[in-house]
Amino acid sequence: xxxxxxxxxxxxxxxxxxxxxxxxxxxxxxDLENGQFPKFSIPNRSISNIMYDKKLRxxxxxxxxxxxxxxxxxxxxxxxxxxxxxxxANKLTHEKKSSTLRDVxxxxxxxxxxxxxxxxxxxxxxxxxxxxxxxxxxFFVFPEERSSxxxxxTIEYTIPGYEGKKQNLSTHPDGYAIGPSMTSAQxxxxxxELVIAIEKGGLFTRFVEEQVDKKFKSIIIxxxxxxxxxxRTLLKRLHEEMKLPVVILTDGDVYGEHIAMVIKSGSxxxxxxxxxxxxxxxxxxxxxxxIDKYKLPTIPMTESDIKRxxxxxxxxxxxxxxxxxxxxxxxxxxxxxxxxAFSKYGLTNxxxxxxxxxxxxxxxx
Amino acid sequence: xxxxxxxxxxxxxxxxxxxxxxxxxxxxxxDLENGQFPKFSIPNRSISNIMYDKKLRxxxxxxxxxxxxxxxxxxxxxxxxxxxxxxxANKLTHEKKSSTLRDVxxxxxxxxxxxxxxxxxxxxxxxxxxxxxxxxxxFFVFPEERSSxxxxxTIEYTIPGYEGKKQNLSTHPDGYAIGPSMTSAQxxxxxxELVIAIEKGGLFTRFVEEQVDKKFKSIIIxxxxxxxxxxRTLLKRLHEEMKLPVVILTDGDVYGEHIAMVIKSGSxxxxxxxxxxxxxxxxxxxxxxxIDKYKLPTIPMTESDIKRxxxxxxxxxxxxxxxxxxxxxxxxxxxxxxxxAFSKYGLTNxxxxxxxxxxxxxxxx
Lengths: 365, 365
Fold this sequence. Notes:
Two copies of one chain form a homodimer. Chain A is an alpha+beta fold. Helices cover 43% and strands 17% of the residues of chain A. Chain A has two domains: 13-139, Arc Repressor Mutant, subunit A; 147-364, 3-Layer(aba) Sandwich (Dna Topoisomerase Vi A Subunit, Chain: A, domain 2). Chain A has a six-stranded mixed sheet, sandwiched between helices. A four-stranded antiparallel sheet of chain A has the order 1-10-7-8, covered by helices on one side. Chain A is globular and about 75 Å long.
């Protein structure tokens, strides 16, 4: 089988991050030596400074920045927290020790740095992301959630103890968890020509059993509902580094449509990052119009489903194309259909009939 | 490294299940030939027939059974549903096609078998488990949830397309998803002497990074909160087939204590099954008494936490030993502590200090 190689070695993100931290640290020292109060310039993350960028096809921050200065007594607390976090991020990155948002909160107590609660420390972590323009995974703060992946993709680990070791992801049919070691691995080679992200574990298993990986030369990813950040990063890398198109299958409801949208264009509260979006990803179903077309069994929408439809209609990303059209149909029919609804026509109807039709259609979209 | 071999070949569960189904099917035919209305005898699953068995250390059903007869017009609907499900279970098992509770619900529509909603079909699936005394995984109905596993364990797959293929579970540090293929695999060999089940993904990764698998000769399982059924089945098999002790680490709160209890002794609504419990499993922390002993940062309990404490005090399984003692301390101090709280003393404090102390203690319990 012809393999697509990834010649570009994975950037040493740790080295890059430490360089940026050093620059900021040097600035603090320089301020002090010049008899000035040290400060950080932080891109403003308030709603008024978040806008949708049609070219990048994601939310971005405007040019407003706030100064967080140790001179201002009302900012001294959050300045100190941010300075400590930069120190701690440097330590994690040097030692290559993974942590979580919650770990960081408790770790602060070892240094007598005071956070009211985890909410306060989470917020400072996002501040540091914005200052560095780097996702927190680069300074070894990872999400708890684990989704999984299966297919002919060979990765090469970079984490301590596994450097240079390779793993092909097609030998364990239940899938490989997507965590820190996969997120940081080099994507070495693949014979796949496509990535299929699917919302549910049961269907992931169906796809593996029905050899969707072989029949459609694809890598299959179980997002487990809303895709965790690690999974979104991996999807982006598969698209950019391995040049693979990404298609998304979700339940046929407004939440499913939005799961696809978040993979495609991220969320407003990550407007300061570029690592979490796959603007070319295509949501291929279950569309609202598929419900009638495929005569799927439906469930009536709840009040909160309907409210969610109206909320999303105000979102700038739902103003054109299938995003607008399908949302309108959902709002009109007030019904939803799950991916498993295809089982009405036999368990393999979704892989034998629906999937090939949708993949054919994806080529023309 | 010395390997422990599993000489006992995994029973052919599919064959066994089909035999049992055949026996029930033959009975239906026999009834019809004798001019009688066919019927099923179903172990009664009402609360009055569920009791705690101190010797088995799990809930069991009493001897009451109900007759579900096609003669009784009020039972005709549920009799037909059950008969159809037995037919469908036979089909799934023959074809070795995995499905989910939701798949079964939609599949029924292909046969014009009427279920009001998924709740009704879920209930009939549990009825069939009770009739067959076999868990639904044996007739290829699997949970959606996927937790993960890491360590020196070699498994041999039995699912179509992978029969006889082996996989060692120590090469992907983020862990291998525990799904249908792992649940049905033969456990071939291991050098591990212990299984550690831990509640959270972040700590699973910490344990792998700190080589808890090597330092403590262990297999590490991330339960991802409440352990899914597949994970509980795998824990039981590791204990029974590979003779490995199982220890459990959870957050230090009443929910954590109960996560451990469910791994140990199951739940009342699975009283008709024996495949989901590990009666010898040991909950090793975070205990309520550890909060003071290790000077852990705490979070105050909410009203609903406190209510849960009082509810569990009525549970027969919380009437002795550490289960009773720790629950009493939680109820008294009205505080809880997360596993990450140890990060106050450094990220590796939990693996360098707490874990070895607890494993030493486990030997004497």
